[in-house]
Amino acid sequence: MMPEYGHALLCLALGVALLLSVYPLWGVARGDARMMASAGVFAWLLFICVAGAFFVLVHAFVVNDFTVAYVAGNSNTQLPVWYRVAATWGAHEGSLLLWVLLMSGWTLAVAVFSRQVPADIVARVLAVMGMVCAGFLAFILFTSGPFARTLPAFPVEGRDLNPLLQDPGLIFHPPLLYMGYVGFSVAFAFAIAALLSGRLDSAFTRFARPWTLAAWVFLTLGIVLGSAWAYYELGWGGWWFWDPVENASFMPWLAGTALLHSLAVTEQRAGFKAWTLLLSICAFSLCLLGTFLVRSGVL
């Protein structure tokens, strides 16, 4: 029954994400402080639901539940337990669930650590992040469900994880890379909030800059670790070969680097406002594009 609980939690998370996308914005329009404050409650509920679903999938890998098609296709009983846990995000469905988990985590972090930010801005930012979460959750539920069953017949042994992925790099590289990708959603959400409110000043950049820096650091670590992994695992004889998959992560890094500099100029000199907005949107859009290209099998 646990996989069914996981699916139910994802359905509940989608409902919460939709509420987070609409209710706080309604509160901003009405000037209702309690409705705006509800964004923080929805952020907590969203994270709890997604984390619960992710735990259910990890549990299925750890106990070798081959009645779950995703587990049967990416693990077996001989795989060490740490690779079974990492196999959770080793393929398409699980990696999308990891994305949503990290997205809900960043959403919760913004809700918790933005007490100095005006309530209407926080409500708008969290609503935008809720929309992104809702989009990914809908995509998972309708096209990439990780809890699909192999019943009534199920294999007694799984098909194993791709041998190239049976490496410590799988444990650290995708989470770090996704932490960077998803982290840029905060700057994106602040940019959309600034456009919705009609005001872009030094306060906007002061609030968005620490989140952008954290995302850039995570993305940098993920790219460096991925380069090292490709170097010794694939034996290319070098760290970087401008492979399309490498470029898919490098383009957001370039946009993020430019965004950090633009945020500094906007905060200190009130310049580059349009560039800051554009780069905030472009950085996260490139993250979405890179994830789609890599995970869709196009590259």
From TrEMBL:
GO terms for biological process: cytochrome complex assembly. Keywords: Cell inner membrane, Cell membrane, Cytochrome c-type biogenesis, Lyase, Membrane, Transmembrane, Transmembrane helix. InterPro entries: Cyt_c_assembly, Cyt_c_biogenesis, Cyt_c_biogenesis_CcmF. One of its GO terms (molecular function) is lyase activity. The chain crosses the membrane at residues 6-29, 41-62, 96-114, 121-142, 178-198, 210-230, 250-267, 274-294. It holds the Pfam family Cytochrom_C_asm. Residues 89-296 form the Cytochrome c assembly protein domain. Its main location: membrane. It is a multi-pass membrane protein. It is found in: Cell inner membrane. Belongs to the CcmF/CycK/Ccl1/NrfE/CcsA family. Required for the biogenesis of c-type cytochromes. Possible subunit of a heme lyase. This is Heme lyase CcmF/NrfE family subunit.
